[in-house]
Automatic annotation (TrEMBL):
Protein name: Glycoside hydrolase family 38 central domain-containing protein
Keyword terms, alphabetized: Glycosidase, Hydrolase
GO BP term, pick one: mannose metabolic process
Natural source organism: Rotaria magnacalcarata
Domain Glycoside hydrolase family 38 central as annotated: residue spans: 175-247
Length: 247
């Protein structure tokens, strides 16, 4: 498929619970019976959607306490924070088949004050890793999905497989995310019809001797906005849907 792996956080509540117990949070997804092995994709489910462990959000909009590493402070908290993070790492690792885990740090609209984040992350890395001399088996560092996949490949493990999809998704016993499949059908049709026009226009422009790309930009930009997951899904309020359609 051209991808080395896929990671996502939204999965059905019961599916998540079962996979977490059986250490099957990562797998080979055989999504198509027709395309064969070329379509197989390593897939990982990220805990907490993509947010940090509880009490470790260091963003300016979060209320979690920073790491206070001056021993003269009355609220010095390094030992407590370090142990809490090590516990969180062990809790997360319990659902995965190797000794590598991806610990996401951040969320929507965060890192506007990146210095505050990285200042605390630097401290967290330093003090957590320092506990290895005391017998801790936790080693944390800045990484990327590519590096994470590389480490998993080196394990040379045979992964479990999945052949169906991940729908429907429920976040609680009475909260199933299915309404957006059919909500606001007029907006969905408008978006699809407009995209047909955009793609035909792009092809005609490519075959012509005159470059009119700038004339296509307004529709292309409007389509980019309308295809946002809070737009074409129909989960927005009516006046917001009207604004998308107007564009």
């Amino acid at each position: 498929m051209g991808f080395d792996g896929l990671f996502f956080g939204r999965v059905d509540l019961q599916d998540y619970a079962e996979r977490n117990i059986t250490k099957q949070m990562e797998m080979i997804w055989k999504g198509s019976s027709n395309l064969g092995e070329e379509s197989w994709l390593f897939t990982g489910i990220i805990p907490r959607t993509y947010t940090p462990p509880e009490s470790f959000c260091f963003d300016a909009f979060c209320d979690d306490e920073p790491i206070k590493d001056d021993p003269q402070l009355h609220d010095y908290n390094v030992l407590e924070r370090v142990q809490a993070f090590i516990n969180a790492a062990h809790d997360q690792a319990a659902g995965y088949a190797t000794n590598h885990i991806m610990m996401t740090m951040g969320s929507d609209f965060q890192y506007e004050n990146a210095n505050q984040w990285y200042k605390n992350l630097d401290k967290l890395i330093r003090y957590v890793n320092a506990q290895q001399v005391n017998g801790s088996g936790v080693n944390i560092f800045y990484s990327t999905p590519t590096c994470y996949l590389y480490a998993l490949n080196k394990v040379n493990r045979t992964w479990t497989t999945k052949t169906d999809d991940f729908f429907p998704v429920s976040l609680n016993p009475h909260g199933i995310l299915t309404g957006y499949f059919t909500s606001r059908p007029a907006l969905k049709r408008y978006e699809r019809y407009s995209n047909n026009i955009l793609q035909v226009t792009r092809q005609l422009n490519a075959f012509s001797n005159i470059t009119l790309r700038t004339a296509i930009f307004p529709l292309s930009e409007a389509m980019g906005i309308a295809q946002h997951h809070d737009a074409v899904s129909g989960t927005e309020k009516q006046h917001v849907a009207n604004d998308y359609a107007q564009r």
